[in-house]
Fold this sequence. Notes:
- By secondary structure, the protein is of the alpha/beta class.
- The chain has one domain (4-118).
- The protein has helices at residues 34-37, 50-56, 63-76, 78-87, 106-118, and strands at 4-9, 20-23, 41-42, 92-97.
- Strand 2 (20-23), helix 1 (34-37) and strand 3 form a beta-alpha-beta unit.
- The chain starts with a strand and ends with a helix.
Amino acid sequence: MSVSVQIKRIYAPVSDTDGYRVLVDRLWPRGQTKVEAQLDRWMKSLAPSSDLRKSWNHDPERFEEFTKHYRRELDANEQVDEFLEFLETQQRVTLLFAAKNEQINHAVVLRDYLLEQLG
């Protein structure tokens, strides 16, 4: 079975097509309640380190550099293997993030990384 991994802002409406909903931010999203979020899991450990997130500061011009550093963090993160095993048991997973930019954020990097690992 192959899994579909998609990304979505946590502030977007919940949808039947979301499947298993995983928040992948280290910090809880501002203004969002746990009821509204309808999370199945919160994986803080998959988010970039606080130092990396702060140094990048969501600067689009530094996204390529951020991506390299974040991928190195993911390579060294023991939680990634556990999450990959879990993904193999799912049909659809939505990685939720709070960043305003839907194209330049850590969830894009994480989704692509996970899909590469799954082959």
